[in-house]
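Memo to structure team: turn this sequence into structure tokens by end of day. - J.P.
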Amino acid sequence: MKRCCIVILCLFTLMLPVQSLAQSASISGIVQDQSGAAMPDALVTLRGGADARTTRTSTVGAFSFEKVSAGTYDVQVEHEGFKAAGARVTVANRSPRPIEFKLQIANFQQEITVAADAVQVNTQTDNNLDVAALDRNALDNAPIFDQNYIATMSRFLDSGAIGTSGVTLIMDGLQVNNISLPPSAIQEVKINQNPYSPEFMRPGRGRIEVVTKAAASAYHGTANFVFRDNRINAREPFAATRPQEQRRIVESSLTGPIGSGKTSSFLFAGTFQSEAAQSIVYAIDPSGEVRANVPSPQRDADLSARISHQLEEKNTIGIRYEARYQYAKNQGVGGVVLPEAARNLRNREDLITYTQTTAFTPKLVNDFRILFGKEHQRIRSVQSGPRIVVLDAFTRGGAQADRLQTEYHTVFHDAMSWSHGRHTLRMGLDVPDLSRRGLEDHTNFQGTFTFSSLQDYLQDRPFSFIQQAGQDKVIFWEKVVSGFILDDIRVRPNFTLSVAARYDWQNYFHDKNNVSPRIAFAYGPAHHPKTVIRGGAGFFYDRSGPNAIFDILRYNGRQLLQYVITNPGYPNPWSSTQQSQAAPSSIVKLAQDVRIPYLMQFGIGVERQLSKSTTLAINYTGNESVGMFRSRDVNAPPAPSYAVRPDPGFAVVRRIESSGRLESHSLDVSLRGNITRFFSGLTQYTLSRAYNNTSGINSFPANSYDLSGEWGRADFDQRHRFNLLGTIKPGKLFNLGLGISLNTGRPYSLTTGRDDYHVGTATARPAGVGRNTLRGPGYAEYDLRWSRDFRLSPPKNEVAQTITFSFDAFNVLNHVNYTSYVGNLSSPLFGHAVAALPPRRLQLSTRFNF
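Reply from structure team:
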């Protein structure tokens, strides 16, 4: 850690002498679409005499070539889906005026790539080529189960870079809670673009970025229909009979001009998904083995409408409205959970987003984005009554899951970019969350009995009873505010240095010094023009998320009361002289020295241009998280008897601490582009190792007074991972999409299944056994997609009417991927799996483009 900090400080000093370097002639400009919106990641080529260079536009569409000698040059701009544009410029004794390009939509093509066209190494720090990306054509033609491109791309994430609140989702530069837009409205999905960017809270491999389609000057549309039925699927390994399943997805999008189309355009997209599926129950109760197929239907409807308008030549605004409705029945059932413990869910979310891009000059651009959202989620138990849990054997009774959660939130992002000479400066304000959150928590109001084993259940001997009572409603404001600054410095034509810093703050945690410096560089050896060396280091602060704040406010000993009784009576947990009103309740509090955890990430890698559109990237990344969240019961009965709590006035005293640690190392080898004559796509192999001593903010150690056994393999640790996503095109007759995912197993813990420490939970492990010492099986899945295009008419408005028929096979080899292995020694299922991922599933789809 100290060595890494010293390296960062030394690299920071490199920017000092740069200010005094003499400025030479440069060629710069900005690239926009026909509506005037900035176009990031466009390929810009400079040719003249023996001088030939390439670069890519920044997030605001700006580009620059430095140290250009006198002469005449051709500048060409290319971007997938748009016509190429060019300009000729003459350089004399000073820099010419900045060039403005406005690209028009190109002819429609059905070629399939996974971010493979014209991939070239360059020394811009935000153009690292170990990025995982799905471009427009890949979204249409790669095998993506249920069109869920977020789940497909999650294979390429680094779990060690993900924060407490989960994967960071970015849509058009703005952080959002979820992304439900249909694939036809998406231009690109990517992971690890500019891994050390200060605009985002988490590193590149901890976030998924989605770019929506740009405005269009002509009418274009897409209609998709996806169908799947259990009669053409393989059999479930845990089902006694083939479970019924039928999936229908109807999706459409339409884009085009408003009026003359010169200044305004629109984009409309909608999706309706209906699934009549069944969950698989595999449990052991006193009567023996239980196998059941439980109907769990779901309905999802998503709607999105966007209007873009160019107020003037340099000013473009956009307004987008999104709505989502979700209904799911009999959720939570499966494995050892019996049908009576099911719950139903209804969720409604509405969002309005306003964006404005103002180019004051080609070198001074401001991006303003703000989102207003409302969410209403209700969960109801299917059946009332106490919940009965026999650990890793069966769960029955009421789900005890009744709750209503509401949220009114605002997300704000404003960034100013300025290019001058060798510097591109970007700074701004980021507010990832400003929300009013409400929770009506009526969970577990009828109580939960927990038994260690079937024998204890037959003898009416639970080890704990937990029940809640009191005021079930709490409202609070969550505030997360950040600021950032970045300076991309072109030190030399073949060396770029990025120096940045970010500041993060959130309420309820009195930790105000969260400044995270970040630095990255890209260097191209002069004698190896097709090779680039990249590296960087930086700090990334986490956030607690809303659930921890909810717990602190409601479990204060006065509002929502939680009773934890060990060795209770059954079915009446209260003794004749004991009443719930007099029993001690549990509380949640923050440790006095709690702070926001931070991740220190550092890495270095090499990128090599193997051919015109094929690159190889080898990268090492190290992660070290300090002050990770975890919970401890500081009122647990102490050794040696573990009989009496130190403070009898309370039950569980959960203290949220920032005392955990994580250490991970990974080596990634990525090959992307046109890898062979027939195959185009992305392959990535990762060799990694991750250890930590906490499973998250809600996790407790086995023994709250002895943390020595907690350091072990992280829950997500997988030594080997291989992922491939691409397409094979042997000829003009058809396209073949291919997806492969191969991973070694994840760990799980060995437990006794008993409440050996009398705290109300069975987290105890055998003596001398640490956390996550058992290893689960590996994972293998092979997916295929066959598609054939039929042109219905000649191109009109640069687009041909085309209908595409596709046939998908997921897990085509029908490899059984077991999950949920039982490490409980008291369970009759010890050492066995109680669930498995889906077997081979076949899917039919039709797409119409016009």
